[in-house]
TrEMBL record:
Annotated Mg(2+) binding sites: S211, T231
Cofactor: Mg(2+)
Protein name: GTPase HflX
Binding site for GTP: 204-211, 229-233, 251-254, 317-320
Organism placement in taxonomy: Bacteria, Pseudomonadati, Pseudomonadota, Gammaproteobacteria, sulfur-oxidizing symbionts
Parts forming coiled coils: none
One MF term in the entry's GO annotations: metal ion binding
Gene name of this polypeptide: hflX
Length: 437
């Protein structure tokens, strides 16, 4: 077998058009991914098949054509715009005599370059190790299971088995460290909830302009670049929305079509900033022809991490490219659906402040809440955010809590914890019961 180079620079991109819509990828986005990883794209090979080839994915004839091109052009890396099985990757590397990387491996490589914080580096390493664990091959001959002679007996396992064991140990170590980081993040979120500081998380497709808008609103200095996955580590900043109210803005990692599951699992603690936010700003590149597909890709990931229940407002960014004036779109009930802005030109930022002030105005709900002993989690959550003024136990042994809570927190908790309507006693409520639920 060949020696793997440290970094492949001269690259060929391979794109296969498949009939199945669920497997369809876009070649322009793939090229941007390759450039973001630092590759120099020498050529793009495209082909069409109904189904992938079991051995080479692209078929034997096309694979041999690429092998001749690799040898003639002295190519160091071949990138596939699809997920390859471990056996397909090994077969292609043996044929091309150079490094082969699929879409998942390419995204993991970009993430490893962008990670800056300790947590981010751990999360990327965990995802890489999970991906690598399915691609370990061969054992060294000098470490064979059985070998005779004094001084020639190996440790009783092949190098492949040793690699797997060490890999498993490292994955356990990283998971333990990430669990500690997750608990620290949860403490921070609890402190913000007790201080009644709401959080707005920025989500959106990669390179939609999340960090540019974040910097424009908060005067932060988050790294901004016109490339995919420029932001990896989450950043939190306070923003004053009126004379008396503050919120926390959270800039998060961008999403992409067919985001590798290992990445979603590894970044679970970071993505909790999205899941537990009071409001999501879904940043959309309004000038992108593929924006509807991008919206669907983002919502798929939000569904996967359990964040679709969080209230969401779309921010249509980059309107300077479309020559559109900033505006607010509302639905039939008057609720804000989307805001049209240009972060790079500072257009429409005042509208965002206006919507935030409107959404987070102190609309308090006061009254009684009747909970059974089985509803202990809801009771603990109410105490955790200092929403309980008084508590009594009635004749049936149920807890009757006098609560004083912002409407947004009550709605969010009711949605997540599935609080039954009959538990609410509408005696003192500022708003009628049907307005609350």
């Amino acid at each position: 077998m060949f020696d793997r180079p440290g970094i492949g620079e001269q690259a060929i991109l391979v794109h296969l058009d498949l009939n199945a819509e669920s497997q369809r990828e876009y070649i322009t986005e793939f090229k941007e991914l390759a450039l973001s990883a630092g590759a120099t794209v020498r050529d793009i090979i495209t082909s069409h098949r109904k189904t992938p080839d079991a051995k080479y994915f692209i078929g034997k004839g096309k694979a041999e054509e690429i092998a001749h091109l690799v040898e003639a052009e002295e190519i160091e890396l071949v990138l596939f715009n699809h997920a390859l099985s471990p056996s397909q990757e090994r077969n292609l590397e043996a044929l091309f005599q150079c490094r082969v990387l699929d879409r998942t491996g390419l995204i993991l490589d970009i993430f490893s370059q962008r990670a800056r914080t300790f947590e981010g580096k751990l999360q990327v390493e965990l995802a890489q190790l999970k991906h690598l664990s399915t691609r370990l091959i061969r054992g060294w001959t000098h470490l064979e299971r059985q070998k005779g002679g004094i001084g020639l007996r190996g440790p009783g396992e092949t190098q492949l088995e040793t690699d797997r064991r060490l890999l498993g140990m490292r994955i356990k170590q990283i998971k333990k460290r990430l669990e500690k980081v997750r608990k620290q993040r949860e403490q921070g979120r609890m402190a913000r909830r007790k201080a009644e500081v709401p959080t707005v998380a920025f989500v959106g497709y990669t390179n939609a302009g999340k960090s540019t808008l974040f910097n424009a609103l908060t005067n932060a200095e988050v790294y901004v670049q016109d490339q995919l996955f420029a932001t990896l580590d989450p950043t939190l900043r306070r923003l004053k929305i009126d004379n008396s109210s503050e919120i926390i803005l959270a800039d998060t990692v961008g999403f992409i079509r067919h985001l590798p599951h290992d990445l979603v699992d590894s970044f679970r603690s970071t993505l909790q900033e999205t899941e537990q936010a009071h409001l999501l700003f879904h940043i959309i590149d309004a000038s992108d022809d593929m924006r509807l597909d991008n919206i669907h890709a983002v919502e798929t990931v939000l569904q996967e991490i359990g964040a679709m229940k969080v209230p969401q407002i779309q921010i249509m960014n980059k309107i300077d490219r479309l020559e559109i004036e900033p505006r607010i779109d509302r639905d039939e009930q008057g609720k804000v659906k989307r805001i049209w802005v240009s972060a790079i030109e500072n257009q429409g930022l005042d509208l965002i402040h206006q919507v935030l002030a409107e959404h987070f105005k102190q609309d308090l709900v006061k009254g009684s809440l009747c909970l059974s002993p089985a509803d202990g989690r809801v009771r603990a959550l109410l105490y955790g955010i200092n929403a309980v003024d008084d508590e009594k136990v009635d004749e049936q042994g149920q807890f009757v809590l006098q609560i004083n809570i912002p409407r947004r927190d009550l709605l969010q908790m009711a949605s997540r914890e599935s609080v039954p309507e009959h538990l609410l006693l509408p005696d003192d409520y500022v708003a009628p019961l049907e307005d609350v639920y």
